[in-house]
């Protein structure tokens, strides 16, 4: 278990060592910094001597479209009242996701030795949902995935509550609770 947790630290260390040798992102250099020469240099460094002028022209069109748009910092976004409903919704969802698993694992009376594997399963569920969502979002659109995700999450929560209520009578319902947590995380990743 300690090896699995330290793996993310190893990946971060590798990034710290090698990322300084890579150029900045060409869209960042052009759209954020306004550095055309730096953008072309970064494209040349990333893609070699190939023909990247089409991509550069696309970036120039995007820059022309967003010319009057002000880029906001994180603090400016937090001070903007028009985004408060979205921020509150996102914050509540993230907090509830962080807390729901621990309480349910305790309620389901899972053995302490199983909980690390269940936590690993939660992470795998998140990965599956990200991969699945990124492959279907263009086909179905954000609205359908968002509404469908919320409906699916509500259904899963009802089933989860039922499995928790019945877990004292049927021992196998404890494991159903864990499965419903995985499904809830997948539905959350696909939708909201």
From TrEMBL:
<dbReference type="Pfam" id="PF00083">
    <property type="entry name" value="Sugar_tr"/>
</dbReference>
<protein>
    <submittedName>
        <fullName>GTR9 protein</fullName>
    </submittedName>
</protein>
<dbReference type="InterPro" id="IPR036259">
    <property type="entry name" value="MFS_trans_sf"/>
</dbReference>
<feature type="transmembrane region" description="Helical">
    <location>
        <begin position="143"/>
        <end position="160"/>
    </location>
</feature>
<dbReference type="GO" id="GO:0070837">
    <property type="term" value="P:dehydroascorbic acid transport"/>
</dbReference>
<feature type="transmembrane region" description="Helical">
    <location>
        <begin position="114"/>
        <end position="137"/>
    </location>
</feature>
<dbReference type="InterPro" id="IPR005828">
    <property type="entry name" value="MFS_sugar_transport-like"/>
</dbReference>
<feature type="domain" description="Major facilitator superfamily (MFS) profile">
    <location>
        <begin position="1"/>
        <end position="192"/>
    </location>
</feature>
<dbReference type="GO" id="GO:0005886">
    <property type="term" value="C:plasma membrane"/>
</dbReference>
<keyword id="KW-0812">Transmembrane</keyword>
<dbReference type="InterPro" id="IPR045263">
    <property type="entry name" value="GLUT"/>
</dbReference>
<keyword id="KW-0732">Signal</keyword>
<keyword id="KW-0472">Membrane</keyword>
<dbReference type="GO" id="GO:0046323">
    <property type="term" value="P:D-glucose import"/>
</dbReference>
<keyword id="KW-1133">Transmembrane helix</keyword>
<feature type="signal peptide">
    <location>
        <begin position="1"/>
        <end position="16"/>
    </location>
</feature>
<feature type="transmembrane region" description="Helical">
    <location>
        <begin position="172"/>
        <end position="191"/>
    </location>
</feature>
<dbReference type="GO" id="GO:0055056">
    <property type="term" value="F:D-glucose transmembrane transporter activity"/>
</dbReference>
<dbReference type="InterPro" id="IPR020846">
    <property type="entry name" value="MFS_dom"/>
</dbReference>
């Amino acid at each position: 278990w300690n090896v699995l947790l330290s793996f993310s630290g190893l990946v971060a260390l590798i990034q710290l060592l090698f990322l300084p040798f890579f150029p900045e992102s060409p869209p960042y250099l052009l759209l954020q910094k306004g550095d055309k020469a730096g953008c072309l240099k970064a494209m040349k460094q990333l893609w070699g001597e190939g023909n990247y002028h089409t991509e550069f022209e696309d970036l120039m069109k995007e820059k022309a479209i967003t010319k009057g748009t002000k880029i906001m910092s994180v603090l400016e976004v937090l001070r903007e009242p028009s985004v408060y409903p979205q921020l509150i919704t996102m914050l509540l969802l993230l907090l509830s996701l962080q807390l729901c698993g621990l309480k349910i694992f305790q309620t389901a009376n899972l053995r302490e030795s199983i909980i690390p594997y269940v936590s690993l399963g939660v992470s795998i569920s998140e990965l599956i949902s990200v991969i699945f969502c990124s492959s279907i979002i263009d086909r179905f659109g954000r609205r359908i995935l968002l509404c469908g995700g919320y409906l699916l999450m509500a259904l899963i929560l009802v089933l989860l509550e039922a499995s928790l209520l019945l877990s004292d009578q049927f021992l196998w319902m404890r494991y159903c609770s864990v499965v419903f947590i995985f499904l809830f995380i997948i539905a959350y990743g696909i939708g909201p």
